[in-house]
TrEMBL record:
This is D-glycerate dehydrogenase. It comes from the Bacteria. Keywords: NAD, Oxidoreductase. Pfam families: 2-Hacid_dh, 2-Hacid_dh_C. It comes from Rhodanobacter hydrolyticus. InterPro entries: D-isomer_2-hydroxyacid_DH, D-isomer_2_OHA_DH_cat_dom, D-isomer_DH_CS, D-isomer_DH_CS1, D-isomer_DH_NAD-bd, NAD(P)-bd_dom_sf. The keyword Cell membrane does not apply. Residues 110-287 form the D-isomer specific 2-hydroxyacid dehydrogenase NAD-binding domain.
Length: 337
């Protein structure tokens, strides 16, 4: 009578296989957008869940989840989880911090360079059969080298993005809730500034903030108005940090040169104005999507599930716990293993 793990989406079987000796594993065989009621039913029938960002889990979804011990999120951002509700229910939560830092930093640069050099629009034009002659003054983009890189949200991903800027000879400004240790600032060659300065002085502004009530629309019409009309905005963080309607207006009216966006408000829906703009380079939330990184994210989720049931090298201590308090609560209600 093994405990049950529900895996909400197809992942990497080589990692999921590590659960088999200890758990009955119920895996979804395709990507499904579950309703709240469907989620509640599934969570009520398992002892651990490995979920993705499309699974929004709060008190309603947890109401019948009497056996549930841990929800392991396949993502570093966890705005899909109501951590307070999970803690109150005695359910641990974990994320996949750190294993995706380098892949996401690479991708931020891909969007930055792609938006600066208009790669998306040029490719669409070529594919549409519009290439007759190469115009000397056609497809002019923006140079990157030596320009100022701004980073809003200077966690590990922001730092990895900053390190790459040295290869482009770019000074780096950042704004963050707290100042980085001096050694890291020196290594990243990054300087803390207030948000107004960041907006005003950045030629390229990359967003790497978690989505919280405080960061919602951190970039809206007022912030966009403070940016240079030649600036490029890159969002690899979360939809909702940017007011997409305000951004589309700024891009359309030439108040901002370009944007590279991997995340959107209400995705997979994308604001229709953004979809029509050639100076917006758009991708479907894939910044961490490399084979190695998505496998590593699965491994982290599996490690956290194993650990919360006393198995594996981290037995008893899930390494990516978001709410250590939950374990105390859980211990009190003591689930049988
Ligand atoms: C992806 O968006 C993540 O948070 O890992
Ligand atoms: C992103 O969420 C970070 O902390 O860098």
């Amino acid at each position: 009578n093994k405990p049950v793990v529900w895996v909400s989406r197809p992942t990497f079987e080589s990692e999921i296989a590590r659960l088999w000796p200890h758990f009955e594993v119920h895996e979804e065989s395709q990507e499904v957008k579950f309703t709240s009621a469907e989620l509640a039913t599934r969570l009520a029938a398992c002892d651990a869940a490995i979920v993705g960002l499309k699974e929004r889990i709060g008190a309603a979804e947890l109401a019948g989840a009497k056996r549930l011990r841990i929800v392991a999120n396949l993502g570093v951002g966890y705005d899909n989880l109501d951590v307070a509700a999970l803690t109150a229910a005695g359910v641990a939560a974990s994320n996949t911090a750190d294993v995706l830092n380098e892949s996401v930093a690479d991708y931020a640069w891909a969007l930055l360079l792609g938006a600066a050099r208009r790669i998306g629009a040029a490719e669409r034009w070529l594919r549409a059969g519009q290439w007759r002659a190469t115009e000397f003054r056609g497809w002019l983009g923006t140079d990157v080298r030596g320009r100022t890189l701004g980073i809003l949200g200077m966690g590990r991903i922001g730092q990895a993005i900053a390190r790459r800027a040295q290869g482009f000879g770019m000074p780096v400004l950042y704004h963050n809730r707290s100042r980085l240790p001096e050694a890291i600032e020196r290594e990243c060659r990054a300087r803390l500034v207030d948000k107004a300065t960041l907006l005003r002085d950045s030629d390229f502004l990359v967003l790497v903030l978690p989505l919280t009530p405080q960061t919602r629309h951190a970039i809206g019409a007022a912030e966009l108005a403070q940016m240079k009309p030649t600036a490029v905005l890159v969002n690899v963080a979360r939809g909702g940090i940017v007011d997409d309607a305000a951004l589309a207006a700024a891009l359309r009216e030439g108040r901002l040169a370009a944007a590279g966006l991997d995340v959107f408000e209400g995705e997979p829906h994308v604001h229709p104005d953004l979809r029509t703009l050639d100076n917006a380079l758009l991708s479907p939330h894939i910044a961490s999507a490399t084979t190695d990184t998505r496998r590593a994210m699965t491994a982290v989720a599996v490690d956290n599930v194993l650990a919360s049931f006393g198995h594996g090298p981290h037995a008893g201590h899930p390494p990516n716990l978001l709410n250590p308090e939950a374990l105390a609560t859980a211990g009190a209600t003591s689930h049988p293993t």
